[in-house]
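WP5 quarterly update. Target: alpha-1,2-Mannosidase. Source organism: Lepidopterella palustris CBS 459.81. Length: 1029 aa.
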Amino acid sequence: MFYHGYDNYMRYAFPEDELRPLSCGPLTRDRENPAHIEVNDVLGNYSLTLIDSLSTLAILASSTPTKRGRNSLQDFQNGVALLVEYYGDGTDGPGGQGKRARGFDLDSKVQIFETVIRGVGGLLSAHLFAVGELPIRGFDAKVQEKRGKKGLHWKNGFVYDGQLLRLALDLGERLLPAFHTPTGLPYPRVNLRHGIPFYANSPYNNDAEHGQCQRNPGGNVEITETCSAGAGSLVLEFSTLSRLTGDGRFENAAKEAFWAVWNRRSSVGLIGAGIDSETGQWVTPYTGIGAGVDSFFEYAFKSHVLLSGLPYDPDYADFHSPEAFLSAWEEAHASIKRHVYRGSIYQHPHYIQVDLYTGAMRAFWMDSLSAYYQGLLTLAGELEEAIETHLLYTALWTRYSALPERWSTSSGTIESGLRWWGGRPEFIESTWYLYRATQDPWYLHVGEMALRDIKRRCWTKCGWAGLQDVRTGEQTDRMESFFLGETAKYLFLLFDATHPLNALDGPFVFTTEGHPLIIPKRLRQPQSAKGSTTTSTNEQKDHHVPGTCHLPPRPVPLSFSATAARKDIFHAASLARLHLMPTLETLDSPLVEFSANHPSISLSDIRSPSNYTYYPWTLPPELIPANATSSKMAVRTTFDLSFPNLPNNILTVGSLQRVNDGVLVNSMSGLRLGMIREPDLHTGDHGISMDQRFRIYAISNVALGRDEKVFMSRDLVDNLNPIDPFFTRTRDTQTVDLAVDAAPDPPSTSPISETGLIDMIDSAIVNSSTANLEFLDDFEIQLDPSSTGDPSYLSSILQSIQALLSSPSDSPLFSPPTPPPIKRHHLSGTLPTGIGAAPLPDTPDAELTFSAEAPLAWRTVYVHHNELCDERLLLEVVREYQIVAIPRGGCSFSAKLRNIPAFAPHGSSLQLVVIVSFPEQEVPHYSSRKEDEEETIEAPSMRQKRRQIKSQEIGNGNGNGKVNPLVQPLLDEVQFTPSGLPRPNPLPLVMVGGGDETLALLRRARGVGVRRRWYFQSQGVRIGNLIVL
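Structure tokens (predicted):
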């Protein structure tokens, strides 16, 4: 397959960029139409297909030479020599001038992303193979000096001394001007000869002496929109280039671009597809895992692999360290799993398009580019998710004998007429990753199916064509360079189990263009020195939990394949509508006339019987159990809850108001709530599944994100029937809001310095009558150094000066202070559980805001100075104070209540016990070792810091609609008095967070009350994201 395309490219297209397989000619830049970016962005007029094919030739070189006389190692070396012949050796001398250009000094405006991944990446990968850093079986990369030339002396007479690396450096330097932007995001395009004169706002062009100016000011304005994948997927190639050359500009520029994208992620952790490189603003509100964002996630994880063990400045660990890239991947994957991923209740797991800011569903289509994601998941250890979602792409390939560019899971048809397949490698790439991880023969059969379909449908006499329509087999007259650079490469590696790359134990990665890269060992420091020079102590603690690879699924007894034996295999077939597979009128193929002198072509390749079986698609029928069955498909429970139109109250635009975290409903008239029943998942590290809950996923045709909430006021729902079985109002018995009226913190009473005193006097003089200032000409202040810290001493000086400056009509210099305004604070709290729990006092619910006409129920508050574990509370306290606040810890909750004396209930006596929890008591520890727990408390890792920040974010505020990080206090015994008798009047208790800040708030409290929470149920199941304010 590879050589059929490569030989025809060299015969009909070289030294141009790509091959036209139908017309047997070259495909070049469209000079007449510069706006034809589908061609011009990629084709830079520098023999692109040859550069993209060199790493594939190097990989093929590890195989035994064929009987037809092909020696891939010689072909690789000849390809390198030919490239140097046309573009020079990368030096400044005469050898730097090639037949076509000196390096890449070409008048071609190309896309940064495509040029980096194909051009720079292809050159670097070929260089690493040439010098032996990447393995070629039987090749000894030994530097020798012969006839005055030092380097690798190849059999073709060529002496390799780093020409490809120097050419990669030349190409990289020509791309650097595009990184001169206000945001750090590179411009999408650059001219290899002239730079970026078409971006007038670039700081690169603001320099009057050295800047570039627009050569055609009256021309069309160049767009500045790039994409997250294009801007953030440069780290692998540029980091390798910097490490090999010692020029850090490339690595720094690529990393800055990566973090510039990541730091602009939305509040739900998603990044968008389109972003403006000058403003840093997202251009489109949709996102997913495919086109526009795909390789960003790939490079987040692979950068962690490639950079492992490399030195970096620990002061900039968040910018350079491999752990920082790993953390970005983990957070990105968690957000994708939360918002973009749809589970088995939607027939079969898959991914959709969602709103960038809320995660709400926006479109149902998936594209062929997104098929890379299963390979990335496999590499990152997320094996189950990779296996289950890969099944859907396998079903789609089975149905269409290729992957359409875009396909809708909703309609089961090709989306928006995007029905082509240009030879993309992503599906085959993921198949290779999964086979390497599982060794499941299923994936060999998947690869065989793809190989036969490509040979049957894409073969032409002059190469391999893409498909313009996957349904009809209509071909396109273009062989993309990635077909030889990736598609053929991954197919070869899939079937060559003993290839050195399949057994290489080292931090190497495949770029998004399929070029393997590795940082040489000589640039990595010894393991023993790593902790002292690469990472700080805190950073080393960040990887206290080493990553582990998941084991492949266990084989099912008497089965051939664990994947084929999965119970959900028919679910993927159902979602792909495999029964609607098109029936072709003819199975003839142009391969028939070519099979005589190509023994690798068989009848199977022409008729491809594997595409006309239903279960399990790619396995021969004799390997399928006769009684094979599939599990019952999960059915999601959804329904719409509609409210009647009320007279003179119709649903208008103002009835729904977008607020933080969701939508505020101002009118119930004509409202329609779309609800789905699903497990309530705890979103922590362990993904604990709670009870089933309803979630409102749409409100009057407005789609909501998974974490968005619907807010309603109590006044709005008071008129509804509280016992309606479809909308039942229920009091929350677990949580409550504690309302506290308090003035702000008093101002600091720190001593006034001499300088501060002079400033205060100057202010007083400025505001005084000028008639009294003549005496100040000789006025001096002499301060007693021993008394400058005494506020009364300073106050007396100020009063004396005020008396001198004042006149009968003057106002006093220091007016009496205005009492600070009282503000109502709401603290989220939890109610106790267990046999010792007592109900709250029957008091009116506190209002949301402070009002002097509606004071809170309790006015007196006592804050105890310790945990109340080893002493008894004074009887006077419980008689005179209605609220007693006690810090959490030291002993059980029941023990604290035991130390409160018995008393006669009265309106002015103790009404409520408030336990105040501290932040360190609220962070869950999952470590099984004590030393790990202590380490976590002393120096939390970056991931733990993010979790703590997230907990603080959801725990602050007024408590309405927030997830409470506190647990319910357990009172595991009935309440006792200090004398050991059962307490006749059990004490109500509530626990709040906030630690010292809450204790300080309660000390200055003017009033305390409670506001009970309500939630709604439908058919006995709680509506999880409906919040009653």
